[in-house]
Amino acid sequence: xxxxxxxxxxxxxxxxxxxxxxxxxxxxxxxxxxxxxxxxxxxxxxxxxxxxxxxxxxxxxxxxxxxxxxxxxxxxxxxxxxxxxxxxxxxxxxxxxxxxxxxxxxxxxxxxxxxxxxxxxxxxxxxxxxxxxxxxxxxxxxxxxxxxxxxxxxxxxxxxxxxxxxxxxxxxxxxxxxxxxxxxxxxxxxxxxxxxxxxxxxxxxxxxxxxxxxxxxxxxxxxxxxxxxxxxxxxxxxxxxxxxxxxxxxxxxxxxxxxxxxxxxxxxxxxxxxxxxxxxx
Length: 281
Known about the structure:
This protein is of the alpha/beta class. It is 41% helix and 22% strand. Helix 1 crosses helix 4.
């Protein structure tokens, strides 16, 4: 019995929505449907009742659920034991935090023999995965307090204005009123504070030539020389070092500081990377 199918089934029971399961697992919705169908063929029973608005367990599904949960738990325990006690650490991170503060640490850990499973997503979705036990730690832009969980500052970045170096029309810096005159991309970082900061820099109703919810796509926009964009500095260190992109200094507005946090179950703190900033910062 394929445990990927079992894990998909368990998550579907939790979320009760095929689309949300597909988004959470970063797979096509048809793959979710096929995995459930394969389980039902193997068992020769209907495990779920489905209609346009709800997914519920059948009586057979309720019995199957308990066995599926145990099988998945046993597989995780078996893998850990066979690998000499080496546990695969399941990390979730926003793209910007991963690129700016986590990537090098993960690569160094792999070189030392550590095992990782990394999920890149938005803060809200990653926190749901953490609450559901699908992640060991989430590195996100939200300070969350929840019983049984640890939340501590992890890193601090700053939002900077960027452009491809050969397209830079403001080598001496830019004023806020000039922002409305440039083709500037808008990225939804799924963090209200960043969105508010960016929109307050522009006039009400300003239309952006490119809006996207993935910061790597903003890098593509910049690399193509199509205009300007704000990104966390940590995401573009290589591009700044190579000279592909240039940072434009703000002349009459402040850069936004972006703190990130590491959130995990209290008993899993030893699995987390050390913070880049003091906890009282």
